[in-house]
Amino acid sequence: MTKEREYLQTSNNNLTKERDQLQTSYNTMTKERDQLQTSYNTMTKERDQLQTERDFLNWRLTNLSWQKFESSWYFLSTETKTWKESREDCLERGADLVIINSDKEQVRERERERERERERERERERERERER
């Protein structure tokens, strides 16, 4: 009976030790999970703030005569200036004159210029109508 009792006591001790280790492991994992959740929440909030800021800046640029084409932004001036004046204006805006690098971009610029010319023509027509 004593041997059996010792065996049961040893088994009980081992099981208790294993249970304690499992509890410690569980507590550690719970703490890590909570830290990961906090990190996730913080990063999600930061991502949302950055997206909001990006959207606002895109909106602001668009309303200031800037237009996005693929991954570049272009300022579309309505003023007629010399090349030098245009370049100085661009540099003051932290930009430079456009260098067209692709046929697609060239076509888009031509379409834009045609649209600006049509708009100028409509404006001249409105002026003539007002003068009558």
TrEMBL record:
Keywords: Coiled coil. Residues 102-132 are annotated as: Disordered. Gene3D superfamilies: 1.20.5.400, Mannose-Binding Protein A, subunit A. It comes from Oncorhynchus mykiss. InterPro entries: C-type_lectin-like/link_sf, CTDL_fold. SUPFAM superfamilies: C-type lectin-like. Transmembrane segments: none annotated. This is C-type lectin domain-containing protein. Residues 12-53 form a coiled coil. The keyword Disulfide bond does not apply.
